[in-house]
Amino acid sequence: MRRDVRILLVGDDGVGKSTLITSLIKEQFIPNIQHVVPEVTIPPEVTPENVTTHIVDSSARPENAAQLELEIRKANVICIVYAVDDHATFERIPLYWLPYIKSLGVNIPIVLVGNKIDIRGEDVTNELLEEEILPIMTEFKEVETCVECSAKQSLNISEVFYFAQKAVLHPTAPLYDSREHVMKPECAAALERIFKLCDSDKDGALNDDELNEFQRKCFNAPLQQQELEGVKDVVQESDPEGLNDHGLTLSGFLFLHTLFIQKGRLETTWTVLRKFGYGDDLSLRDEFLCPPLDVPTADGVVELSSAGHAFFTDLFRKHDVDQDGALSPAELDDLFATSPGNPWVNPGAAAGSNGSAPTSAASPSSSTTLGPVVGPAALAATTAGFLDAALTNASGALTLQGFLSQWAMTTLLDYKTTLAYLAYLGYDGDTRQALKVLRRRRAAVVGGARRGTRSAFLCYVFGAAGAGKTALLRRFVDNPVADYYTQTTRPLAVVNAVEVKGSEVYLVLQEFGSKYESEVLTNRKRLEQCDVALFVYDSSDVNSFAYVAQQIKQLDSSIPCVIVATKSDLDLVQQRYEVPPDVFCRQLELDKPIHISVKDNIMADVYNVVSAVAMNPVSAIPKGKSRRPERSPLGRYLAITAAVGATAAVGFAVWRMYKSGELLKRF
Predict the structure, then answer these.
(1) Would you say the C-alpha torsion 571, 576, 577, 583 has a positive or negative sign?
(2) Which segments constitute the Miro domain (predicted)?
């Protein structure tokens, strides 16, 4: 919400623009003042809306035209003043002033101000005034309201500037169609989302407790029972479908806000909208969807906190209507009804608060997968098939473990998507509290994050096409594999919980397809995001190991490695490489390859092994590629000198033993 308002007064000469300003400031009528009074700034503490207000006077004389145009472009709201005793000044509003302002390309709220009502006859009624004003408001939608006042008698002076403030801070145009007298679809959609978020028991109505919680969130005070009943009576009288046995329905909720708008209480509806993150254009604000989070570029990692884990668990249970421990497609759709859509099915769902098109994520080395973006464009290259990466039951419904695992993976790969969806789905409070920031490969705390060890790890999976990477990933989530040896090239990521030494952690396995593997292996920024690299070769293919051996040689020096030999159900063949796989591993002080068969479900605890390495990576870093500090020339000299000295000392000792006969005695 803006913290300052600039009000410009325009109108024909002699209508009383300057006296309106002086009467407000001096609280009395000052005759014979200068033609244009200086700009006035009113501090926020003395304004009803608690905003700094700038009030600017103007002249309609031809010699001041350039200055007038400049001020019109700077204004947030314009008050067009006319004299009620001079009908010509009123007629010039639709004939000159409104077209002139529009011709400058300015689209801001307009308030019509009728001054000098103290000298108008008594025969003017509200009905006559409405007949005159309504055609103007119908033709010019920017006109918010009309206020009549008297600078001389200080009548309605404060109201003029109050309504001008309201026109900026609580505008009508985004909410209501004044011509058709109906709420605009964008406003109705926003209020429907708010209604669904407040309907905690998901019965399609707000009961008394839910209404009071809504009141507390928006206005910091619950309604008294008598007030609640009064609200229901108003709804029941005008909208029979607005109430049912459970409480206030969506129809009744929308009716109340339409009534607030029609009665001029726009601040009520705007307060509700802003409490739920909406901006003046009725889109969710960027700072609401993605508040800044301090994550170290080099080794920062983001995970769900206990608060975030509890929120998603509670969200799952609320939407598990049939209480079968899983979310059906319909239940899942209902869960995401307050968001742009399922982030794992629709890659463009959270492209941004304005629904803009997502950035392409075709290549895993593109900025959408390396850099944080609001929306799951970063996940599009990895969760190409939602069911491929999710834990589902026999009927294909998403289990609680699968739901939580998906959020663990989303947060690890693109925490900004999680932040946005926490806001979309109704997290109460600062969404950053649902996340925690840690350092990769150690449990040190970053910034103001709460202390705790890591619970989610990322493993990149490499290997030649046809080695069995995709089958290995699908087995991890018990996804049936029709053809275990079918080659795939599209990226894929899966996630599941793994128990390691009594602790449960989430492991994300991510493959990129042979098309992009070399890009990832040479992209240092991308490699910094992974905790362990899993190299897969086909033990039945003579050329398969040579492929991963070359990949390991070009791998960054700090990445721990695990090597897996797949298809042990087929005949083992000798690999065409300079040394056998076991010798290669021994030379690099790595564990021997783990032999598995996805087809026969012989997995040798490979997922536990990978998780254990991610938690304790030091032992799995290839020997020749560890980050040992290189010695300086002086250090090398001292080391060589020490070695030569040690050799000489040993030689001298042996010679003395030979001379004394001691050496012969030992034999």
Answers:
(1) positive
(2) 2-170, 454-616
In sequence order, what are the residues at sequence separation of 6 or more whose Cβ sits closer than 8 angstroms to the Cβ of residue 240? none
**Domains assigned to the chain:** 4-169 (3.40.50.300), 182-283 (1.10.238.10), 285-342+379-439 (1.10.238.10), 460-615 (3.40.50.300)
Chain center to CA of 592: 43
Q: What is the pTM of this model?
A: 0.80
Beta bridge pairs of residue 42: 53
Which letter does DSSP use for residue 431 in this model? G
Structural contact between residues 409 and 495, judged by C-beta atoms closer than 8 angstroms? yes
Contact assessment for residue 266 and residue 166, using Cβ atoms and an 8 Å cutoff: yes
Q: 484 and 570 in contact (C-beta within 8 Å)?
A: no
Distance of CA 238 to the CA centre of its chain: 39
137-178 pLDDT tens trace? 889 989 998 999 999 998 999 999 999 999 999 999 899 988
Coil, helix or strand at residue 29:
coil
- What token pair was written down for 416? 């900004």
Nearest of 474, 493, 490 to residue 482 by alpha carbon: 474
DSSP E strands: which ranges in 26-67? 40-42, 52-56
Other CB atoms within a 10 A radius of the CB of residue 177 amount to 14
Which ranges of 140-177 does DSSP label H, i.e. alpha helix? 157-169
Token representation of residue 622: 């290839």
DSSP string, 367-393: HHHHS--SSTHHHHTT-SSGGGGS-B-
Token pair for 444: 């040190």
d(CA 241, CA 113): 40
Lookup: tokens for 604: 């040798």
For residue 110, give every residue at least 6 positions away whose Cβ sits within 8 Å of its Cβ, in sequence order, or none.
77, 78, 79, 80, 98, 101, 140, 142, 143, 144, 167
Whether the CB-CB separation of 467 and 541 falls below 8 Å is answered with yes
C-alpha 594, offset from chain centre: 40
Query: Using CA atoms, how far apart are residues 425 and 338, in angstroms rounded to an integer?
Result: 6
| Pairing of the two strands 4-10 and 243-244 | unpaired
Please tell me whether residue 118 adopts helix, strand or coil conformation: helix
Decide the pairing of beta strands 110-115 and 143-148.
parallel
pLDDT digits (tens, 9 = 90+) for 217-243: 999 988 899 999 999 999 999 998 999
